[in-house]
Design brief:
Radius of gyration: 31 Å
Bound molecules: adenosine monophosphate, magnesium ion
Structural class: alpha/beta
Number of helices: 7
Helix content: 10-25%
Number of strands: 28
Number of domains: 4
Shape: elongated
CATH architecture of the largest domain: 3-Layer(aba) Sandwich
CATH class of the largest domain: Alpha Beta
Strand content: 25-35%
């Protein structure tokens, strides 16, 4: 057995970063940007008001209060999107709407809540004084021309997409995200609603893995369910490496007699077969077939998902240019005993989180078998229980979210 980290280092050392492509910003979120973006504009483009109210000269409002209102002449109205053609002189003001340009001469805005307009709208009575600059958003306060808006290697979030649109940049260069082909193997597997013949089970891994891939932002190619047949496995892999950036297989990587995936991959690529010191998901294979990374995930349904989370997903993240490829390890408190025996492995125990008094507690789910997907479905977390006798109730437990 090898430590998990050795397997992760090995795989991450082999997978390539994919090239960049031009993307419309409407489809660029969750991509890693390949070229820094610099603003060519001032944001905001002009001094404007942050509130609805009256543009004034601050000095005119000195000492204004509820008992001592200041009255100013209202010489116009400035809606958002307009350009005022007047200048505020001493004793004057203009009604102004949020986002509208500040008229020349004004140096502050009084919120509408602190004002009373005369019936004819020609005078405003102000009940609170304002400082110079009050409620004004200055031109370039957010961005100046030449400011770097997004640095190379940034993972684009919705705020970045809005930021780009806000400076009129609608296309970016971003690292391509891998297209992932997936097939399951095993003579016992069937897909469909037909009654199961003796010895058969339904293929579940291909579906849980495609769902994981899609949730994590990867395009999938469903290469189907392949029986334990050398020729079929070989032609599926040939097709897969032609049209995909990565292949995932499930099943046939352990020590069984009919594990033809192993035979075929050994013939076609440079494979490494590993026994990793973890439970579940001990067997794992990785290699390159014609420069396409191939992940041989174990067949047990929970194992295939855990293997994906620990090994395939970080690799896919690296290929799409992400810097932080591993899930954050967090800490909680065991709400029950996390029992185990020493066996040289790190255990990833299916668990769920709950909060009490601002503290995070973890409870193990009941069904911990690597074939028991219902236990995995109940879990939102994998608790990381190091080799030894387990973590008793009340002790700290490390975990990551599934
Ligand atoms: P294998 O790695 O092929 O020896 O499979 C290990 C276990 O996982 C066996 O019990 C298989 O029947 C089961 N298994 C393999 N592939 C799948 C799959 N796609 N869906 C559900 N169970 C599977
Ligand atoms: Mg099998």
């Amino acid at each position: 057995m090898i430590p998990l980290q050795e397997a992760q280092d090995y795989v991450l050392g082999k997978v390539p970063k994919l090239p960049a492509e031009d993307l419309e910003i409407t489809s660029a979120c969750s991509h890693v940007i390949a070229k820094a973006v610099t603003s060519g504009e001032l944001v905001p483009p002009f001094d404007n008001t942050a509130v609805d109210g009256y543009a004034v000269r601050a000095a005119d409002t000195d000492g204004a209060s509820g008992n001592n209102e200041v009255s100013l002449e209202v010489i116009g109205t400035v809606p958002a999107g307009s350009q005022p053609n007047f200048e505020i002189q001493g004793g004057q003001s203009a009604k102004i709407m949020t986002g509208a340009p500040l008229p020349r001469g004004a140096d502050a805005v009084v919120m509408v809540e602190w004002t009373n307009s005369s019936d004819d709208g020609r005078t405003v009575h102000i009940s609170r004084g304002v400082e110079q600059g009050a409620h004004i958003r200055r031109a370039g306060e957010d961005l100046q021309p030449g400011d770097q808006v997004i640095s190379e290697g940034t993972l684009l979030t919705p705020a970045h997409i809005g930021l780009l649109a806000g400076i009129g940049v609608y296309q970016v260069s971003a690292v391509r995200r891998p297209v992932v082909g997936i097939f399951s193997t095993g003579d016992e597997l069937v897909e469909g609603t037909q009654a199961l013949a003796p010895g058969q089970i339904r293929d579940s891994n291909r579906f849980s893995l495609m769902a994981l891939l899609e949730r994590d932002g990867f395009e999938t190619v469903n290469l189907g369910l392949i029986h334990d047949d050398k020729g079929a496995i070989e032609s599926t892999i040939r097709e897969g490496v032609d049209i995909c950036d990565v292949l995932l297989t499930t099943g046939g990587v352990s020590m069984g007699d009919y594990d033809y995936v192993k035979v075929v991959l050994n013939e076609m690529g440079d494979m490494r077969w590993m026994q990793i010191a973890i439970k579940p998901a001990k067997p794992f294979a990785f290699g390159m077939v014609q420069d396409v990374p191939v992940f041989g995930l174990p067949g047990n349904p929970v194992s295939s998902m855990v293997s994906y989370l620990l090994l395939a997903k970080p690799s896919l993240y690296k290929m799409m240019g992400r810097k932080n490829v591993f899930p954050d390890h967090l800490s909680g408190i065991a709400a029950d005993d996390f029992h185990r025996r020493a066996d040289g492995k790190t255990h990833f125990v299916r668990a769920f989180l709950h909060q009490e008094n601002h503290q995070t507690f973890l409870s193990p789910v009941w069904k911990q078998g690597s074939h028991q997907l219902s236990g995995m479905a109940e879990a939102d977390t994998l608790a990381i229980i190091p080799d030894g006798e387990g973590s008793p109730k009340g002790s700290p437990v490390e975990f990551f979210r599934i």
